[in-house]
Design a protein that fits this description.
Rossmann fold; six-stranded mixed β-sheet; transmembrane helix; single chain; ABC transporter involved in vitamin B12 uptake, BtuC; elongated; alpha/beta; binds adenosine-5'-triphosphate; four-stranded antiparallel β-sheet
Length: about 600
């Protein structure tokens, strides 16, 4: 209830605004335009701010929504309420088609791709005969309920703002869920998300479709508000403006979309109305002043105005503490240490002329801690990437519990109970420790996007958060549970990664330099935790440069040098192995 309170207050304020006596009708028109822009920007919050997929082409999806209802109501006489699902469907289908191509792009190619199809669709709208070419379609009927026709701006005002508030609620619900965390994890790159079972192409396509459907809804409302549709509002310039709105408001924040729309629409209107008086009717000046003002605003609040305003709040919204009595099911553990859990046979990885892993073979048994050591560039991280499916082996065999995984994607390997941490920490810095760790339990939940939006996922979600809280407690970071991951020290972030990996309920835990950045006491606590995990039935394979830590902890050590295994044995044997001393310990001495 407390989390929904701002939404309820906002809804009440918006509901009474048109009832204020003598309110200028033009204000209502402005609020209608703000609502329409906010819907598109809200999709961009999810797509760009949260998912990290920059799109300049959202205006085209408004066009799909607007033209669908324009054609169906004017040419076929359908009721606008019947064309609403059609408009959303057409926008969604267009997003599937464009998204399948676009979400594969990365870096600069992604925004460039969206600009390309944004411009292409604008010209398509203006060339097609049945869409009225450049003139568009007029005579679109107003929305109506019974005999009440929403002809005036204050009549359609409620339809627009109900759509905005419902969309805000559904979007916030989605973000605060298992699917939402998967989407938020996309921004940190696909490797970390996939290591915990997130189907990243599917998650990207989901946000792409969601954003397009919100834009289609805005287009549908726009068509019945203006009672006409032509290509101009759906062109590339409008697409850029929508992205501007999301960035100005705060691209990662649902309410940032509403605030950004308010700022941009009002600023444009004020400048267009008053600048001609000041500068004697010089055309285009308002565009320049508008640009300068937005740049200044972003200097003041680089992450957007909404988070900047929130940072001034004297209190922070409290989060519910997870109920740790709720339990998820656990995997069965191997009863003894005789069974082979991980079997690597002549694994090889070549990058062009570089042989990073050269026919390496070794096993990790159940209930065993194995360390993989070697000088820099020896091939340790590449071996981890081969085991976890991030890289495919050039040749050789890798199997987990007898199942071959050398060509399996990370999402399949993690299902077998193999989880990992990364040499370069891959947490989402603006998510809390709890939220980051809960990503590790992704495969142990099953609520999808729709059930999350409708809040039917609460029982599932409570168990996932409880598991995350338990693992955070296990690694000793309970005091930091609600802190943003990015605010922790690097050593603590590594421990958060271990808690996230533990949330998988793994059989085999792969830790890439877990002790780097830890103080002496913290290393001792980590070693005690890893021993406790081993004794509880887990196996650990770790890459570590701290020889004292490795020699004390490992049951067995595998040594790589230039991609080749040069030794394997107990810590005592490795310490005295002349090859190792020459290649590794000798080099370090
Ligand atoms: N994607 C890649 N493309 C080309 N070469 C690569 C790639 N990844 C690793 N290598 C090369 O493979 C070799 C092994 O690298 P790897 O990162 O596995 O070593 P490492 O033992 O983990 O080293 P460190 O201890 O410094 O992390 C290095 O020569 C490295 O430059």
């Amino acid at each position: 209830m407390t989390q929904r309170l701002p939404l309820i207050i906002f809804a009440l304020v918006m509901a009474v605004i048109p009832l204020v006596p003598d309110i200028p009708p033009f204000w209502i028109v402005l609020l209608d335009n703000i609502g329409l822009a906010a819907l598109v920007a809200m999709g961009l919050v999810l797509l760009t701010g949260v998912g990290g997929l920059t799109s300049f082409g959202q205006a085209a999806f408004c066009g799909f929504g607007a033209y669908t209802t324009a054609v169906l109501t004017t040419a076929y006489g359908l009721s606008p309420w019947l064309t609403l699902p059609a408009s959303l469907l057409v926008s969604g289908i267009a997003a599937v088609v464009l998204g399948i191509v676009t979400v594969r792009l990365s870096g600069h190619y992604l925004p460039l791709g969206t600009i390309a199809w944004g411009i292409g669709l604008f010209y398509l709208f203006s060339k097609l005969e049945f869409l009225g070419r450049n003139d568009g379609i007029s005579g679109i009927p107003p929305l109506s309920i019974g005999s009440f026709k929403m002809l005036s701006p204050d009549a359609i005002y409620y339809a627009i703002w109900v759509a905005v508030l419902l969309s805000a609620l559904l979007t916030m619900n989605l973000l605060d869920s298992r699917t939402g965390r998967a989407i938020r994890a996309l921004r940190r790159g696909h490797v970390a998300a996939e290591a915990f079972g997130v189907q990243t192409p599917r998650a990207k396509l989901l946000v792409f479709i969601y954003a397009a459907v919100l834009a289609g809804l805005s287009g549908w409302l726009y068509a019945h508000f203006q009672r006409a549709a032509n290509p101009t509002p759906f062109g590339a310039q409008a697409g850029i403006e929508y992205l501007f709105i999301a960035v100005v408001g705060g691209a990662g924040y649902v309410w940032g979309a509403v605030l950004g729309a308010g700022i941009v629409v009002v600023l444009k209107e004020v400048l267009q109305s008053y600048l001609p008086y000041i500068f004697g009717g010089q055309s285009q000046l308002e565009t320049i002043v508008f640009g300068i003002m937005l740049v200044l605003l972003l200097q003041l609040a680089p992450s957007g105005v909404w988070p900047w305003l929130m940072s001034w709040l004297p209190f922070k919204p409290a989060r519910k503490t997870p109920d740790t009595s709720l339990k998820l099911e656990h995997r069965e553990r191997a009863p003894g240490s005789s069974s082979v859990l991980l079997h690597i046979e002549k694994a090889r990885k070549q990058f062009g002329g570089v042989i990073a892993v050269n026919d390496v073979s070794f096993d990790v048994n159940a209930r065993e801690i194995v360390a993989l050591i070697g000088p820099n560039g020896a091939g340790k991280s590449t071996t981890f990437n081969l085991i976890t499916g991030v890289l495919t082996a050039t040749s050789g065999k890798i199997s987990v519990l007898g199942k071959e995984v050398e060509n399996a994607p990370p999402q399949e390997v993690v299902k077998l109970g193999v989880s990992r941490t990364f040499q370069h920490v891959k947490l989402v810095p603006d998510m809390t420790v709890l939220e980051n760790v809960a990503i590790g339990a992704h495969l142990r939940g099953n609520s999808g996007a729709i059930s999350s939006m409708l809040r039917l996922d609460r029982a599932d979600e409570a168990k996932l958060l409880a598991e995350a809280a338990r693992q955070i407690e296990r690694v000793g970071l309970s005091d930091q549970i609600d802190q943003l991951a990015g605010s922790l020290s690097l050593g603590q972030q590594r421990i958060v990664e271990i808690a996230r990996a533990l949330c998988v309920d793994p059989m085999l835990l792969l830790l890439d330099e877990p002790a780097a950045g830890l103080r002496h006491m913290e290393k001792q606590r980590l070693a005690a935790l890893l021993r406790q995990l081993r004794d509880g039935g887990m196996s650990v394979l770790l890459v570590e440069h701290d020889m004292g830590f490795v020699m004390d902890l490992a049951d067995r050590i595998v040594v790589l040098d230039f991609g080749t295994k040069i030794a394997e044995g107990t810590p005592a044997a490795i310490k005295t192995n002349p090859e190792v001393i020459k290649a590794y310990l000798g080099a370090a001495a």
